[in-house]
Amino acid sequence: MLSDALIIPLGKSVEEILKGLIDEKIITEEQCLLGFPHPSGANGHRKKQFELNRKQLQQKIEKFIFENI
Questions:
Q1: Between vectors from CA 8 to CA 5 and to CA 10, what angle results, nearest 5°?
Q2: Helix (H) / strand (E) containing 56
Q3: Are 22 and 28 within 8 A, CB to CB?
Q4: What is the pLDDT at residue 62?
Q5: What are phi and psi of 7, to 5 degrees?
Q6: Over pLDDT 90: what percentage of the chain?
Q7: With a threshold of 0.85, does the pTM exceed it?
Q8: Rounded CA gap, 3 and 18, in Å?
Q9: Which residues are within 8 A (CB) of 37 and not within 5 positions of it... i.e. 6 or more apart?
């Protein structure tokens, strides 16, 4: 069911779980936006983290969309 999904992990804990699923070949790394910051106001580094990863995240989204049209 997840083969066509683009997964956006909100935070490091979820990202670590997704990495395990990637290692187990349940999902692919191409369908996960690893590096996406948790949007909570408690995450004081979210803006900096987003800016650091923005280009890579955008490229991954574009690639995913064009490959799954």
A1: 150
A2: helix 46-67
A3: yes
A4: 95
A5: -100, 125
A6: 67
A7: no
A8: 13
A9: 11, 43, 45, 46, 47, 49, 50, 53
